[in-house]
């Protein structure tokens, strides 16, 4: 029966690309001009591929539910397994604020009020309304089943296709625009200007495009001949995503004037393309509405996903009984409500930091740092399990024999993650010098507090926290 469900190579490529297909990240890529080619190659080769390959070995070796939390627990003990699951939950506090912030911007264009896209109070209010709205809907209905896959098709793939087509037509019509982000090509533009470290900070936002790369590894068991086909699928997917994102990023860089890029506003390039190419203005309203639908569907999917993983950790006795509460529909109500409250508090950053661009970038970078801590734990676990459990059956294995290739891939991953964290703490050039110290304190404090809270909870855990199935 299992063989009838085996994925084809092309099926796995499609699924892998679906995890990372997003039109929202294009402005963060485009703002770096020609340097985006270098950044995307670094993100793909040093970040995405090593993590995806290590995750494939781990997911085929440990086939129980839980993913990274299970791998780290087996390698480093229950404490670090809990920290892993905790970080994967709390990163969404920042990630979902970043995603939800685009709702207000898109809504402004849908209702023909584009000025609202730069109104930080409006963005803050819409984050609250949209996230609490999808949270309450998920308590009542199974929104993932209702939305299905059409949300991604309408909100991601079709707009992404339109963006690439319009961008290429614009570039063929005008050539390279000297006054825009792309500017005239110079070989020196292909590598970052390390004298201006503030521009290097954008690497963190670009790496975020590939955050969650380990998720596709759950399908490594469902493909024929995983040893051969999984790396082909992952490498092909990453190459395709690099090419598509670069086409979109370069064409947007060529259209937006220097200093005018709105990082949270994917509608901006559509407005420029449509005005220049004579496309009716109603097209911008329609595309904005389509992307808005995709964002709401994505928010809806994240409301329950991480919470369902965390309640398993709570059942194992790592959190008090309060966290084990479920509704009649088996929804982990405590986690769902806590994340909604914390996301509301984090979104207040849009009031504290009046510039929408700056707030968006700061939150994106925070999310990337938290993901990087998880990837650091995964890389350490991957090499440690080679020695701790050498006899484990690994349908997909890095290297036919010996541990040399695993050492190389894991060390490459550790190096890239550490570099990403260091780069993320450098204040981006979008900020004012007076904001630099506050930015660095915020990023370091947010990361340390999130890790410390997990370690404190674990240290305080009690035997009676463990779920008793008969009693509960």
Automatic annotation (TrEMBL):
Metal-binding is among the record's keywords:
no
Location relative to the cell: Cell membrane
* Coiled-coil stretches: none
The organism's superkingdom is given as Bacteria
Which Gene3D superfamilies does this entry report, sorted A to Z?
Amino acid/polyamine transporter I
Q: Which NCBIfam families match?
A: antiport_TyrP
Identification of the protein by name: Tyrosine-tyramine antiporter
């Amino acid at each position: 029966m299992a063989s009838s469900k085996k994925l084809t190579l092309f099926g796995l490529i499609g699924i892998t690309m679906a995890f990372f297909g997003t039109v929202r990240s294009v402005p963060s890529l485009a703002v770096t001009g020609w340097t985006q080619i270098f950044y995307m190659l670094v993100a793909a080769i040093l970040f995405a591929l090593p993590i995806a390959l290590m995750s494939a070995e781990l997911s085929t070796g440990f086939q129980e539910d839980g993913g990274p939390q299970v791998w780290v627990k087996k390698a480093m003990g229950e404490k670090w397994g809990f920290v892993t699951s905790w970080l994967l939950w709390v990163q969404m506090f920042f990630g979902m604020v970043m995603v939800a912030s685009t709702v207000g911007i898109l809504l402004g264009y849908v209702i023909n009020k584009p000025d609202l896209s730069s109104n930080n109070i409006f963005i803050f209010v819409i984050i609250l309304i949209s996230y609490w709205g999808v949270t309450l809907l998920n308590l009542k209905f199974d929104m993932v089943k209702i939305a299905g896959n059409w949300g991604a098709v309408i909100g991601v793939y079709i707009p992404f296709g339109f963006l690439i087509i319009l961008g290429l037509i614009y570039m063929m019509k005008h050539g390279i625009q000297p006054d825009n982000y792309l500017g005239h090509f110079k070989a020196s533009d292909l590598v970052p200007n390390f004298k201006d470290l503030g521009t290097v900070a954008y690497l963190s936002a670009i790496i975020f495009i590939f955050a969650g790369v380990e998720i596709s590894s759950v399908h490594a068991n469902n493909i024929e001949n995983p040893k051969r086909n999984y790396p082909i699928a992952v490498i092909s997917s990453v190459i395709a995503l690099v090419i598509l994102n670069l086409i979109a990023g370069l064409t947007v860089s060529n259209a937006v004037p220097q200093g005018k890029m709105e990082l949270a506003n994917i509608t901006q390039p559509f407005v420029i393309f449509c005005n220049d190419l004579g496309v009716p203005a109603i097209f911008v309203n329609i595309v904005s509405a389509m992307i808005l639908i995709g964002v709401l569907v994505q928010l809806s999917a994240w409301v329950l996903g991480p919470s369902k993983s965390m309640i398993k950790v709570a059942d194992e006795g790592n959190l008090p009984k309060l966290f084990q509460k479920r509704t009649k529909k088996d929804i982990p109500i405590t986690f769902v409500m806590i994340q909604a409250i914390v996301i509301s508090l984090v979104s207040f950053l849009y009031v504290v930091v009046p510039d929408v661009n700056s707030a968006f970038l700061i939150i994106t970078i925070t999310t990337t740092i938290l993901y990087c801590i998880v990837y650091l734990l995964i890389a350490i676990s991957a090499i440690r399990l080679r020695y701790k459990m050498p006899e484990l059956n690994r349908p997909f294995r890095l290297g036919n024999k010996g541990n040399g290739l695993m050492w190389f891939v894991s060390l490459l991953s550790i190096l890239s993650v550490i570099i990403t964290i260091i780069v993320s703490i450098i204040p981006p050039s979008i900020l004012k010098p007076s904001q630099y110290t506050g930015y660095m304190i915020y990023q370091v404090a947010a990361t340390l507090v999130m890790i410390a809270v997990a370690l404190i909870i674990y240290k305080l855990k009690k035997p009676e926290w463990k779920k008793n199935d008969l009693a509960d």
